[in-house]
Amino acid sequence: MAEAHQAVAFQFTVTPEGIDVRLSHQALTEIYLSGVRSWKKRLIRLKNSVITGVYPASPSSWLFVVIAILATMYTRSDPSMGLIAKIQEHLPVSQSMSSQCQALLSAVLFSTMLWLLLIFTMRLCLKQLLSYHRWIFEQHGKMSNTTKVWVALVRIFSGRKPLLYSYQGSLPNLPVPAIKDTVKRYLESVRSLMDDTQYERMTNLAAEFESSLGNRLQWYLKLKALWAANYVSDWWEEYVYLRGRSPIMVNSNYYGMDFLYVTPTPIQAARAGNSIHAFFLYRRKLNREEIKPSRIPGTVIPLCAAQCERIFSTTRTPGEETGKATRHVHTPHCMFNELSSFPEMFPRIPWAKARAEYFSSGVNKRSLDCIEKAAFFVTLDDDEQGMMGDDPAASLDCYAKSLLHGKCYDRWFDKSFSVVYYKNGKNGINAEHSWADAPVLSHLWEYTLATDCFQLGYNAEGHCKGEVDSSLPRPQKLNWEIAPEISQSLAVAQALADDVDFHVFAFRDFGKGKVKKCRVSPDAFIQMALQLAYYRDRRTFCLTYESSMTRLFREGRTETVRSCSNESCAFVQALEGGEAADVCRRLFRSASEKHQLLYRMAMTGGGIDRHLFCLYVVSKYLGVESPFLKEVLSEPWRLSTSQTAVQQMELFDMVNHPEYVSCGGGFGPVADDGYGVAYSVLGEDVINFHISCKHSCPDTDAHKFGAQIRKALHDLLQLLSPYQKEPTRTEKTRPEVKKDL
């Protein structure tokens, strides 16, 4: 798995007769085959580069254009309007080339230039088409004639059989919003969170910023937007992630769970073998760009695939001021860890200093290089996890905490992702956040779970199918020399892990099926339930973060949806104040529509927070202070939320095999006195929730907040469909737990 040193190409000894060289034919054969594989990969990448480079046309279309131009020449017509003759005049004089050959060469050159011009035009047209976002604001189920024409044109200019990165050159750049629009939307988003005095003060700060410093900062952003593919993403990665100085365990990394009700095999090694095989099958498809480009569900609109390049063999390297995300190419191995005694990557500055002092040479450097160049990291955990035992609910909470931080010394949190395999066959994944966002890793995780169970499978005893290849090199043990001060950092990590309070539950009383019958977006419904639950829990409102993607644009990552709006606050206050049901329903509709509008604005480049963040970065570069930006960027997100959407439902059969559902994933709390809430909507009848907070805060309790969410969901459904019969039990009976061995 790590470097295999057993196979050597040759051995030599010194004898009285001279040097005796003994060649190993098996080793030379392996070297030859390795070279063949390497060249195949290069040729595949070259072919894909050509195909992607000329997309939406195809390389074969060049031949079609050449033949068409030559055919017109033989009919004595000149489609070039004299350009072919001009090219022929400027060709170098050659005695060996007849005038007919020169004419033929001129026609080929003209055809090639015409072909390239057509490709450029098609790409420009597709880019302009993909810049149209009015379709996303149209009412569900109703499409305007303009949008119908636009969809037809997108289909025409999108070409056929695109590779993973085919659309990258045609995606539009993220636009820079106008200062006045961002400031206006910001003030609207905080109105319900401030009293009159606070709001007046903030309004004055905003007006001063807009009329003076803001325009100067905006000019630099517009200049960057002209030059860079995305004016946000590189700074977001640098300043939000890589310059973060706190431990990334709990604070930044996130996790994903296995199937909720099914464990395909109880044998740890078999589960690891199958799913690791599936990971490398995905990587092969990724290297060949055979993975279909992601699209907005139900549409032809492509999403940016730039983050996919760093899924494998990427490591976050610490630095005293800033870290970096390093990708290593051509790394065929993965890294196993079986409960080593290496501590969590403690705060980044001490870790950077320790790395420079203790890991820059010798055995530590060799071992560290093996880990950092690995495709991904694997932990064989000696615990049992999952929904099990006499208290399945508590076991899920334990499972989440194990995936989030483990024992603080048995994960490698700097790797792009680490896979954990438990003693009872359950697994899970922990991901570093700087290199990409959750949907990218989720796509890989869905593929791996499905391939592991439904394609590779297990025999009757629970072992992997197939025969053992005894010629494979055995794993190599990595050795470490751990200084005492490094071991002491375990106490820091343990304190951070012990402070995390987690509650995970599957809400099965109803799902998006009943919500849609109420003519409400499931995401808006859940967000309104979270607002209601938080208000009941704390008797106040708070700044709420919901993650939205901006991958409609080149190199897009995320934007913030400020889910706590004036409309949502008005609805919650009316419901809690005992207003009439009709009034509450009307206010709920208004709040959910506003939430949908905010979400769509965020997706299409009209968000607030990334623009303000970049303005703040520019102000720091210029060495100027902005009281407005400083206050905006220091506001805490006491409720941080994110939906984990299933992207490849075709891989799972939710009708015949509803037990094969993942429980989704989660993350740690963003604020010390707040909640982190991740949720996933599965099928028509299941919503999974992952709630985190800190024990050290007396005002937060993950289980208490979970109970408030359950109650809020029921209350909203009863409000919107008062005549529907509610379930008599608070939880439906879960499906029978099965094992396919």
Automatic annotation (TrEMBL):
<keyword id="KW-0276">Fatty acid metabolism</keyword>
<dbReference type="GO" id="GO:0004095">
    <property type="term" value="F:carnitine O-palmitoyltransferase activity"/>
</dbReference>
<dbReference type="InterPro" id="IPR023213">
    <property type="entry name" value="CAT-like_dom_sf"/>
</dbReference>
<keyword id="KW-0012">Acyltransferase</keyword>
<dbReference type="InterPro" id="IPR000542">
    <property type="entry name" value="Carn_acyl_trans"/>
</dbReference>
<keyword id="KW-1133">Transmembrane helix</keyword>
<feature type="domain" description="Carnitine O-palmitoyltransferase N-terminal">
    <location>
        <begin position="1"/>
        <end position="47"/>
    </location>
</feature>
<feature type="active site" description="Proton acceptor">
    <location>
        <position position="433"/>
    </location>
</feature>
<feature type="transmembrane region" description="Helical">
    <location>
        <begin position="50"/>
        <end position="74"/>
    </location>
</feature>
<dbReference type="InterPro" id="IPR039551">
    <property type="entry name" value="Cho/carn_acyl_trans"/>
</dbReference>
<dbReference type="InterPro" id="IPR042231">
    <property type="entry name" value="Cho/carn_acyl_trans_2"/>
</dbReference>
<keyword id="KW-0443">Lipid metabolism</keyword>
<dbReference type="GO" id="GO:0006635">
    <property type="term" value="P:fatty acid beta-oxidation"/>
</dbReference>
<keyword id="KW-0808">Transferase</keyword>
<dbReference type="GO" id="GO:0009437">
    <property type="term" value="P:carnitine metabolic process"/>
</dbReference>
<dbReference type="Pfam" id="PF16484">
    <property type="entry name" value="CPT_N"/>
</dbReference>
<feature type="domain" description="Choline/carnitine acyltransferase">
    <location>
        <begin position="348"/>
        <end position="710"/>
    </location>
</feature>
<feature type="transmembrane region" description="Helical">
    <location>
        <begin position="103"/>
        <end position="126"/>
    </location>
</feature>
<dbReference type="InterPro" id="IPR032476">
    <property type="entry name" value="CPT_N"/>
</dbReference>
<feature type="domain" description="Choline/carnitine acyltransferase">
    <location>
        <begin position="174"/>
        <end position="323"/>
    </location>
</feature>
<dbReference type="GO" id="GO:0016020">
    <property type="term" value="C:membrane"/>
</dbReference>
<keyword id="KW-0472">Membrane</keyword>
<dbReference type="GO" id="GO:0005739">
    <property type="term" value="C:mitochondrion"/>
</dbReference>
<comment type="similarity">
    <text>Belongs to the carnitine/choline acetyltransferase family.</text>
</comment>
<protein>
    <submittedName>
        <fullName>Carnitine O-palmitoyltransferase 1, liver isoform-like</fullName>
    </submittedName>
</protein>
<keyword id="KW-0812">Transmembrane</keyword>
<dbReference type="Pfam" id="PF00755">
    <property type="entry name" value="Carn_acyltransf"/>
</dbReference>
